[in-house]
């Protein structure tokens, strides 16, 4: 999940040549990529001349408007028990943003922990998103990290990267917004 978030951050500052190895570190070792447990010396580089993300994000007010508009989709990628408000291991309140769809990020993976094929992901998300403009799609999770796992899946499937709600459930649930739980 952290690799997907880092991928998103690099893409959001307009790095074009960014890749994430399907299968993570264990797959890199299996494929014979060189690895090291040594502490690497980091060279100082100039700061990026960046004032804003270049990929679309949504703030809490945009999510509030989107969740009540049929032209938009708000996707919550947390597992079903968190979405339903049955359990909440990280935040103070369990539940979800009313109107959000639950599409757990774990469903992007096959039984071996690899991303499903680009074709399978494209079919799945095309059915969910339908003919809606990706600019009207907002993806979130608990704190903005695992949502990037789904954004990476969408990009891998050839679907334009939608908006990331960075604040996610952590921000929503702490700001006196309407909340829902499974009944």
Describe this structure in words.
The longest helix is centred in the C-terminal third of the chain and has 12 residues, at 118-129. A four-stranded parallel β-sheet has the order 2-1-3-4, sandwiched between helices. Strand 3, helix 6 and strand 4 form a beta-alpha-beta unit. The model has no long low-confidence stretch (mean pLDDT 94). The protein has helices at 2-12, 24-30, 60-67, 80-83, 118-129, 146-156, 168-172; strands at residues 73-76, 101-102, 137-140, 163-164. The two termini are 30 Å apart. The chain is an alpha/beta fold and 183 residues long. The protein is 32% helix and 7% strand.
Largest beta sheet: strand ordering: 2-1-3-4
Percent helix range:
25-40%
SS field, number of helical segments:
7
Strand content: 5-15%
In sequence order, what are the helices and strands, one letter per element? HHHEHEHEHEH
Low-confidence stretches: none
Number of strands: 4
Major β-sheet profile: 4 strands, parallel
- Please give the alpha-carbon distance between the first and last residues: 30 Å
Rounded to the nearest angstrom, the radius of gyration is 17 Å
Shape: globular
pLDDT averaged residue by residue = 94
SSE class? alpha/beta
């Amino acid at each position: 999940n952290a690799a997907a978030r880092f991928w998103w951050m690099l893409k959001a500052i307009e790095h074009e040549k960014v890749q994430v190895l399907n299968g993570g570190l264990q797959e890199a070792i299996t494929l014979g990529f060189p690895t090291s447990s040594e502490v690497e010396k980091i060279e100082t580089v100039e700061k990026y001349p960046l004032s804003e993300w270049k990929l679309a994000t949504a703030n809490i007010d945009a999510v509030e408007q989107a969740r009540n508009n049929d032209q938009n989709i708000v996707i919550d990628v947390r597992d079903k028990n968190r979405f339903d408000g049955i359990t909440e291991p990280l935040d103070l309140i369990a539940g979800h943003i009313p109107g959000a769809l639950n599409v757990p990020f774990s469903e992007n993976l096959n039984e071996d922990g690899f991303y499903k094929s680009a074709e399978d992901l494209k079919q799945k998300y095309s059915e969910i998103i339908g003919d809606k403009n990706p600019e009207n799609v907002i993806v979130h999770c608990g704190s903005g990290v695992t949502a990037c796992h789904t954004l990476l899946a969408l990009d891998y499937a050839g679907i334009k990267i939608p908006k990331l709600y960075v604040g996610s459930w952590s921000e929503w649930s702490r700001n006196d917004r309407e909340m829902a739980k499974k009944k």
